[in-house]
Amino acid sequence: MFLAKILGKNRLKFLSLAFFVITLIFSPCLLNFELPFLGSSSVDFSVNAQIVQLENTQQDTKLEIAQNLPTPKSSEKTSQEQEEIIDFFKMAMGAIAGLVLFIYGVTRLSEGLEDIGTARMKNLLSKFTTNRFAGVLTGAVATTLLESSSVTIIMVIAMVSAGVLTFVQSLGVVLGSNIGTAVGAQIISLKIEQYVPILMFVGLLVLFLGKTKTQKNIGIIMLGFGLMFYGLEAIDEAMKPFRNYQPFIDLMQSLGKNPLLGAIIGAIVTVIIQSSSATVAIVVTLAGSGLISLPAGVAIMLGAEVGTCADTLLATIGRGRPALRTGVFHFLFNLISAIVGIIFAPLLVQLIQAISGGAGVGRQIANAQIIFNFIGVAAVIMFLPLIVRGLEKLIPDAKGDSELKVKTGA
After folding, report:
1. Quick one: pLDDT band at residue 342, thresholds 50, 70, 90?
2. Mean pLDDT (the chain, rounded)
3. C-alpha dihedral over 260, 17, 175, 116, to 10 degrees?
4. CA separation (Å) from 73 to 64, 69, 77, 78, 225?
5. Distances, alpha carbon 181 to alpha carbons 76, 140, 147, 211, 248, in Å
6. Which residues contact 46 (CB under 8 A, 6 or more apart)?
7. How far apart are the C-alpha atoms of 45 and 40, rounded to whole Å?
8. pLDDT attached to residue 146
9. What gap in Å lies between CA 389 and CA 314, rounded to an integer?
10. CA 353 vs CA 104, 346, 372: distances in Å
11. Which pLDDT score is estimated for 334?
């Protein structure tokens, strides 16, 4: 929080995400005990030593050693692979450039959506949360339009604190927000990059030619959406050399075999950048290029579901007991869902592969997120009255909360 005050929230997000991607680029080589930078010299030394040994030994020894020598073609291939492996500076620069575009695009997209939709979303939330099912649908729609489950839930917490919504009404919206946040991953997985320039061009025209603030916001949303895609594409392109880099492959395999480790990484990254949508978007993009496997992507996605609760828990501070219960419900629901998902991760992967047909890995991860959230909501929604009573006993009302009940008619 202290750094956020000094640097500003958006700058801190960018620096944190930049640090994560750079760490992702450099950490695999640190896990390998043989430094890639010394690899080519050691190969040259080995080849020279073998040549000397060929000249000074008998014919049968020559033949035996010659069989072990690499052919000129394989030696040249090894040299090329070494050059690709050690070019981390170029990869880091490409990834940082992509991050700049991605973070700026996400920021502008969020700002434009919030300017246009915040007031409308508040009206939507207050009018269409008459029962738990309507609340789920409302939360899903609001999160899809605002492109952020955190924004939706923080808005709900503020409305509960102000007495506009009751604690019971807020639970359905919280459940629906988890479904709505998966829609963005579905859009990313569609691979619509070739149409993005058209969208950006139209957005630029609307931004410059628009006369009202709403029209200009629509232009900003279009531009932000396009820049977000270009940023993801730049990150993906920069990290393509990792496809044949064994330490990185081993790291991704370990995440797939150990879902708990992958979930922890996903949670940490999401807490740092304060957006589960951004975490999953990067994972879906990299998976589409074969850099992340389906088991590893599912594990990271499960962790992102938990990491996104950090903002909402902070938003409950000083908001009253009903708002606190809403934040605690969001955290416990996501945490328990993620734990169950980690336990049954292999079955979830098999289910996604069965229903996704021939879809790519990126699309499969997006499908896994939305199906996982649908299953979680379906498993809990019928038990909301019991959950409400349990949370009210766990976090009883304070003296000032009785005024909110009178105001909302609860």
Report:
1. very high
2. 76
3. -170
4. 20, 11, 6, 9, 45
5. 47, 8, 7, 32, 29
6. none
7. 9
8. 75
9. 23
10. 34, 11, 13
11. 93
| Residues 166-199: tens digit of each pLDDT | 888 889 989 998 898 888 788 877 777 777 788 8
Residue 93: which of 34, 21, 17 has the closest Cα? 21
Question: With contact defined as beta carbons under 8 Å apart, do 373 and 182 qualify?
Answer: yes
- Answer for the pair 189, 405: CB distance below 8 angstroms, yes or no: no
Asked whether the predicted pLDDT for residue 59 surpasses 80, the reply is no
Reduced to 3 states (helix: H, G, I; strand: E, B; else coil), residue 87 is coil
Confidence tier at 47 by pLDDT (50, 70, 90):
very low
Structure tokens at 149: 């489950």
Highest mean pLDDT among 39-53, 158-172, 317-331: 317-331
Integer CA distances (angstroms), 289 to 99, 232, 257, 285, in order:
17, 11, 20, 7
pLDDT of residue 39 exceeding 50, the answer is no
Angstrom distance (rounded) from CA 153 to CA 117: 14
Listed in sequence order, the residues at least 6 apart from 16 whose beta carbon sits closer than 8 Å to its beta carbon are 272, 273
Question: What CA–CA distance (Å, rounded) separates 281 from 235?
Answer: 11
Q: What digits encode the pLDDT tens for the residues 206-231?
A: 888 888 888 888 888 888 888 888 88
| 156, 173 contact by CB (below 8 A) | yes
Give the relative orientation of helices 88-127 and 213-238 as an angle to the nearest 10 degrees: 140
Query: Angle 104-105-106 (CA atoms, 0-180°, nearest 5)?
Result: 95
What is the DSSP track for 30-75?
HHSSS-GGGHHHHHHHHHHHHHHHHHHS-HHHHHHHHHHSPPHHHH
Q: Could you give the angle at the alpha carbon of 344 between the alpha carbons of 332 and 364, nearest 5°?
A: 95
